[in-house]
Amino acid sequence: MIAQHETIHSSNGRSFRIASAVPADVPELHALIAGLADYERLTDICVATQHDLEQALFGEVRCAEALIARVDANHQEAAGFALFFHTYSTFLGRRSLWLEDLFVRPEYRRGGLGRQFLHALAALAVERKCGRFEWAVLDWNTPAIQFYESLGASLLPDWRIARVTGDALPRLAAGGRPSTTNPRNQNA
Hints:
Layout: E1 6-9, E2 15-20, H1 26-39, H2 50-58, E3 65-71, E4 78-89, E5 94-104, H3 113-127, E6 133-135, H4 142-150, H5 168-173
Parallel strand pairs: 5-6
Antiparallel strand pairs: 1-2, 2-3, 3-4, 4-5
């Protein structure tokens, strides 16, 4: 796992500490998630509570992990986070690391922190013998797409994410056909 207080020196002269999130980080992680929802123009569907996040990361049945970056050695301000979990590839016969969210506060962008998060997660995927490391990016987020491609990531043009959520999920579970609803609600 990521060493606690691993200091990363950025290209803009700042330093950051990337560490595995701990329960005390939940309020800041929750605030960072709200910042991400605002950036992605999805605040209307961001309904997760701090309790939801705490249960996902540290509850009895954990389903995700997170890294958090703090500014400089003497500050506790959170600069960004990465939330991830494992999936499984039947074709590879190995688990994969899925990056659900990566967010760096605007004032800390362009200093290499996003790159350091991706390096840390790739190293974790290698350490855990994952067959691949994957994430999704919104098609309008050209700066992120260019950044990911500069790191060697490939965008998969033939794949689309299928999602059932909201009222459509229990209808499908009951054997009914989900109705077509507001496509905006399918983004989260």
